[in-house]
Design brief:
Elements lengths: L2 H6 L7 E2 H5 L4 H4 L1 E4 L8 E4 L4 E4 L6 H6 L9 E5 L5 H4 L1 H8 L10 E5 L4 H9 L3 E5 L4 E4 L2 E7 L8 E5 L4 E5 L18 H12 L5 E4 L9 H16 L10 H10 L3 H14 L4 H13 L3 H14 L4 H13 L3 H14 L4 H13 L3 H5 L2 H19 L12
Parallel strand pairs: 4-5, 5-6, 6-7, 11-12
Antiparallel strand pairs: 1-2, 2-3, 3-4, 8-9, 9-10, 10-11
Helix pairs in contact: 8-9, 10-11, 10-12, 11-12, 12-13, 12-14, 13-14, 14-15, 14-16, 15-16, 16-18
Length: 401
């Protein structure tokens, strides 16, 4: 390499304390260092304590050369956690094992990753003498004296995990959530948009103030907003809507509800209602999604608001009857369903729900007197009987080719 090429190499920003970067005082932040990634390496985090834990070893050996000039020894590294198996996050494990054999001394090294990680990331370290722990999500990890909840977050890849430290409201998010960017769903690594939504829902259920991402700087302000922006971005991709397209949140919510993505439908309804709190169509759609999610009390609260203004709103009457049915308050459900049928006797959903309320309250004959319910009930009973009458498939019961 000539001198010109050497001068053009990007320079490391160096290892930095999270306490300084976040401007927060806590033992976790004071004991954690970050080397921001560049080119083909992710961010690398080192948590100090009685031993060292690395979260994502990256893909750049020079970072460790610098780390080991800061009064840290390779043998002090006892645990390495991978947020997912992409090379820019994971290949540093091999560099450590090959270049610093002392990491396998004094009790060895534990590599922690999701069970769906690429086989090479599990098998090769084992062959080199590393202990490998496979996760599924839901575990609690002790890392350098701090406890972290493992959250399974597929979507970008099938093997993605995030780590959540509740006392500081901090999360290692890998490539799931990054400031000013959104990772694609890598189909070659098992990624999918549906899984992405599932993972982001899980993160939104935690109280997260600080994000430690796989790329870009840590986020200590508006961290939840960053997660929500990623969620919105994935929703747009699911709907195949360009960012500049003028599509209302209500339209998005309607499409999502039709696809069965009810939680995303609620999210979009809330965005629309933030702009127009009294929009009746959006309120109705949100209540519908909440009822179907089993969040009936929340749905009824919205429907009561509609009925206070429009006592003859048949959608709200049927919706409240359905919600009360879901809460097993059958006699109350019948009142609202009957009110809807008085206004419009042809509402099929109202007749079906009334039949169900009567049936579950023990009034079976009255339920069977409702033609729509009887037809549906008999049809489903017939289908169940046909399933039971089918002989079990025996091995070898195949048509000859």
């Amino acid at each position: 390499m000539d001198q010109t090429e050497h001068q053009q190499e990007p320079k490391h920003t160096g290892w930095k304390s999270l306490s300084d970067l976040l401007n927060k005082k806590h033992e976790l932040f004071e004991n954690t260092l970050l080397m921001e990634g560049f080119e083909f390496s992710s961010n690398i985090y080192v948590i100090g304590g009685e031993y060292l834990t690395i979260v994502d070893p990256g893909n750049d050996y020079t970072t460790y050369m610098e780390l080991f000039t800061l009064d840290y020894e390779p043998a002090a590294i006892k645990k390495i956690v991978l947020t997912h198996g992409h090379h820019d996050h994971a290949m540093g494990i091999f560099e450590l094992l090959r270049s610093y054999p002392s990491v396998l001394q004094n009790g060895g090294l534990e590599l922690i990753l999701h069970e769906a990680a690429p086989p090479q990331l599990k098998e090769t370290p084992k062959e080199m003498g590393c202990q490998v722990t496979e996760l599924r999500g839901g575990e609690t990890l002790e890392l350098s004296g701090f406890e972290w909840e493992v959250i399974y977050t597929p979507g970008h890849t099938i093997d993605g995990i995030c780590l959540y430290h509740a006392p500081t409201k901090t999360a290692f998010t890998g490539d799931m959530v990054m400031p000013h960017a959104m990772a694609e769903a890598d189909e070659h690594a098992g990624g999918s948009l549906d899984h992405y939504l599932f993972a982001l829902r899980a993160l939104l259920k935690r109280d997260i103030e600080n994000i430690l991402p796989g790329h870009g700087g840590p986020v200590a302000v508006d961290a939840r907003k960053v997660i929500e922006e990623t969620y919105e971005g994935v929703i747009m991709k699911v709907l195949e809507i360009e960012a500049e397209a003028k599509v209302s949140w209500f339209q998005g919510a309607s499409q999502l509800a039709q696809r069965g993505l009810l939680e995303e439908g609620v999210f979009c309804c809330e965005k629309e209602l933030a702009r127009n709190p009294e929009d009746s169509k959006t309120l109705e759609l949100k209540a519908l999604c909440l009822n179907d999610l089993g969040r009936c009390e929340e749905a009824i609260e919205i429907l009561d608001k509609i009925l206070a203004e429009q006592s003859d709103n048949t959608f709200a009457l049927v919706g409240k009857g359905y919600g009360l049915l879901g809460m097993e308050r059958y006699d109350e459900a019948l009142i609202y369903l009957d009110d809807a049928l008085k206004i419009n006797p042809d509402i099929k959903e109202a007749k079906m729900y009334k039949g169900m309320a009567l049936h579950f309250s023990g009034r079976h004959q009255e339920a069977m007197d409702i033609e729509d319910f009887q037809t549906e009930f008999v049809e489903r009973f017939k289908q169940e009987m046909e399933k039971k009458e089918q002989p079990p498939i025996q091995s070898g019961d195949h048509e000859s080719s």
